Amino acid sequence: MGITVLVLVSICALAAESFAGFDAIQRRVYAPPGGFYVVNIHPHNVSSFTEGLLFDRGMLLESTGLDGQSYIREIDARTGLSTGKEFKFPPDIFGEGITVLGNTIYALTYQAKKGFAINRDSFKLLRSFDFETNTGEGWGMTTDQTHLIVSDGSSTIYFFDQKSMAKVREITVTNNGQPVININELEYVRDELFANVWLTTNILRIDPISGNVKEVLKMERLQYLESNVENIRESWRKVDAVMNGIAFNPENNHLYVTGKLWDAVFELQVALASDTPHVRTFDG
Ligand SMILES: *[C@@H]1O[C@H](CO)[C@@H](O)[C@H](O)[C@H]1NC(C)=O
């Protein structure tokens, strides 16, 4: 009798132990009321100073910044490895956000007031173009399949004509009536704009018509599941190694998020709290 009880207790203890780690991770990353779960953690190149991230044709496309280190690469999300398709920005150019419209990759640059149109298949440069923002800078980019949608580090988001780069309209991002500055990487997800905010671990869900913030997804816990940043020695790099990069995978409805110089891309199931039932029901 005594022995049976002992065996039972140790089996229970074992079971509890083997699930404890998983539960702990789920608890750490679950952030009610909106909430999200880490579904998977994928490798990320620790040299990538991520400025743009998106899914296209089942592949991740990533753009990076810093002079001389800026490129656009096609990456297998599961391995974090480049497929070999790559565009290198000119050495004096700091790359920024990217998006794909039709068979063209559009790429912003930071302070050169210049963008690049690149063939999606060959990664060959088609043309460069000029663009204008209030700050004179290019930060994040996405598309609603009609316009190129651009952030410039302020609270303004521009909708540009894809051919002429003429401004069609603009919105100001506001949360409870207050402008939110430092809007960075953008991702258009089913009629909403998702945005990183520079130097924060918040992702905003923004109404693309009014600019109102519908929800703030607080993701501060993700950085503790990432281990590269604590190894960075130079202080400026450490400070700049912030969360940036949002990609929506339409094949599984998951968000993939990362940061500059992070060693991980987090695949998230986002349980959205508010008024988008088609996003809230996850079947993937
Ligand atoms: C990571 O990025 C660096 C810098 O661009 C590059 O030299 C290296 O080949 C990349 N590694 C992989 C595995 O893609």
Oligomer classification: single chain
Please identify, by name, the CATH architecture: 6 Propeller
In the CATH scheme, the class would be Mainly Beta
Percent of sequence in beta strands? 35-45%
Radius of gyration: 20 Å
Task: Please state the overall shape, judged from the principal axes of the Cα atoms.
Answer: globular
Helix/sheet category? mainly beta
Report the sheet with the most strands, covering strand number, pairing sense and barrel closure: 4 strands, antiparallel
Tally of helical runs: 3
**What name goes with the CATH superfamily?**
TolB, C-terminal domain
Strand order, main sheet: write it out: 1-22-21-20
Labels describing this entry:
mainly beta, single chain, Glutamine cyclotransferase, glutaminyl-peptide cyclotransferase activity, binds 2-acetamido-2-deoxy-beta-D-glucopyranose, globular, four-stranded antiparallel sheet, disordered N terminus, disordered C terminus
Task: Give the topology, please.
Elements: H1 2-29, E1 36-43, E2 50-56, E3 59-64, E4 71-75, E5 82-88, E6 95-101, E7 104-109, E8 114-119, E9 125-130, E10 141-143, E11 147-151, E12 156-161, E13 167-172, E14 174-175, E15 178-179, E16 183-189, E17 192-197, E18 202-206, E19 213-218, H2 235-240, E20 243-249, E21 254-259, E22 264-270, H3 277-280
Antiparallel strand pairs: 1-22, 2-3, 3-4, 4-5, 6-7, 7-8, 8-9, 10-11, 11-12, 12-13, 14-15, 16-17, 17-18, 18-19, 20-21, 21-22
